[in-house]
């Protein structure tokens, strides 16, 4: 199943089951990817997290039902999975900026969150793509374990990078990365369990002086996407284009386990910072 087909199928399933208990495990199983990778894929393609998308759609539909039906607020709360009317009202107010009663009385317009339409773009690729077959290697460096949440990519991981830059960890890793598989440092994100992930910043150098954590990367085929721009926006844009533009038009699909972001220089505030994204791949089942 292509990356876009996996997300489109998930969106269709979500729309048909907004009033049911939606399981990330079931959605991921339909896609053929792990729960962790499927959530990353959804966020990259839709530019909103899976959990936030479901909540926003429920709040949008709930407001429409308030205006077009006689359902009580208590009934809507239980219908959309809230344990109490109070918790539903708080979530509703956070989304709409008004209480359910105010929306029903039309004292304030309801906020609308439309269903996402997943489509393939024909925009030109903003990076150079090459294919590499590499033996297995070990990433050595420093890591942090994070609970999987909607703030992890927005707050937690950027804060980890700032700390590594402040304490000179990034400089030490970059200085020890010469003559390895890549220039600079790599970031790798792997599921630790169903609710946590391990995020490692490291190098493939055997002489790395920082060895608090390591990840064994098996031999596989990689697609390497090379581009430049201002961080972190350019990385987010690149992931979006990789999944929505490149893979749907290619004969490959991600393995769904190992991805690397390569950063060659510690000066990350450059307007045209050079970067690479490596995605472990396999031949597409749809060719």
The gist of it:
The protein folds into two domains: about 5-105, Arc Repressor Mutant, subunit A, CATH 1.10.10.60; about 130-285, Multidrug-efflux Transporter 1 Regulator Bmrr, Chain A (Alpha-Beta Barrel), CATH 3.20.80.
Please provide a written account of the structure.
The chain is an alpha+beta fold. It folds into two domains: about 5-105, Homeodomain-like (Arc Repressor Mutant, subunit A, Orthogonal Bundle); about 130-285, Alpha-Beta Barrel (Multidrug-efflux Transporter 1 Regulator Bmrr, Chain A). The protein has helices at about 5-15, 25-30, 35-45, 50-70, 75-80, 85-95, 100-105, 150-165, 170-175, 235-245, and strands at about 130-135, 135-145, 185-190, 195-205, 215, 220-230, 250-265, 275-285. Strands 1-6-8-7-3-4-2-5 form an eight-stranded antiparallel β-sheet. A hairpin with a 4-residue loop joins strand 3 and strand 4. Helix 1 runs antiparallel to helix 2. The N and C termini lie close together (about 10 Å). About 30% of the residues are buried. The mean pLDDT is about 90. Keywords: DNA-binding, Transcription, Transcription regulation. This is AraC family transcriptional regulator.
């Amino acid at each position: 199943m292509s990356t876009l087909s996996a997300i489109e199928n998930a969106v269709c399933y979500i729309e048909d089951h907004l009033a049911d208990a939606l399981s990330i495990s079931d959605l991921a199983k339909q896609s053929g990817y792990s729960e962790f990778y499927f959530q990353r894929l959804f966020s990259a393609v839709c530019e909103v997290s899976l959990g936030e998308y479901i909540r926003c759609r429920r709040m949008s539909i709930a407001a429409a039902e308030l205006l077009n039906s006689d359902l009580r607020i208590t009934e809507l709360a239980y219908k959309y999975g809230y344990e109490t009317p109070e918790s539903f009202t708080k979530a509703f107010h956070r989304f709409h900026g008004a209480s359910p009663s105010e929306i029903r009385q039309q004292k304030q317009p309801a906020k609308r969150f439309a269903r996402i339409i997943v489509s393939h773009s024909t925009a030109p690729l903003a990076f150079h793509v090459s294919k590499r077959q590499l033996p297995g290697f070990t990433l050595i460096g420093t890591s942090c374990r994070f609970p999987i949440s909607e703030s992890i990519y927005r707050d937690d991981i950027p804060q980890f990078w700032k700390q590594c830059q402040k304490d000179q960890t990034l400089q030490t890793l970059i200085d020890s990365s010469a003559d390895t598989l890549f220039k600079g440092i790599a970031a790798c994100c792997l599921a630790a369990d169903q609710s946590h992930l391990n995020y490692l910043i490291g190098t493939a150098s055997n002489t790395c002086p920082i060895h608090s954590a390591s990840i064994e990367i098996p031999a596989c085929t990689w697609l390497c996407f090379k581009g430049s721009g201002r961080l972190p926006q350019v990385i987010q844009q690149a992931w979006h284009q990789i999944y929505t533009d490149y893979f749907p038009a290619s004969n490959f699909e991600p393995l769904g386990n190992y991805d690397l972001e390569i950063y060659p220089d510690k000066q990350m505030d450059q307007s045209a910072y050079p970067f690479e994204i490596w995605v472990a791949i396999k031949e597409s089942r749809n060719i």
